[in-house]
Amino acid sequence: MPIVVDIDVMLARRKMSVGDLADRVGITPANLAVLKNGRAKAVRFTTLAALCEALNCQPGDLLRWEAEDAAGG
C-alpha cells in the first residue's frame, strides 16, 4: 500500500510504549498495532487528531505516501 504509517518512529522519538499511547488515545493496543503495522484500511480523523495530540506532532509525521514500484504495482 502506498500509504506508510510511521507511528513507531514517533513512539521511539517520544520514548512512549504502544500501551501508553493506546491509553492516551482511547483505543485498544490491538487496534493501535493494526494501524502501526500498516494493516488498517482507514483511520478516523478523530483518531488521527488524538494521535497527534498525544505525540505532539502533525499528521504528516505519522502518515506518508510512498510510490509503488512500477514493475510490481
TrEMBL record:
InterPro entries: Cro/C1-type_HTH, Lambda_DNA-bd_dom_sf. Signal peptide: none annotated. Pfam families: HTH_26 (PF13443). SMART domains: HTH_XRE (SM00530). It comes from the Bacteria. SUPFAM superfamilies: lambda repressor-like DNA-binding domains. Residues 13-62 form the HTH cro/C1-type domain. PANTHER family: DNA-BINDING PROTEIN (PTHR37301:SF1), DNA-BINDING PROTEIN-RELATED (PTHR37301). This is Helix-turn-helix transcriptional regulator. It comes from Streptosporangium amethystogenes subsp. fukuiense.
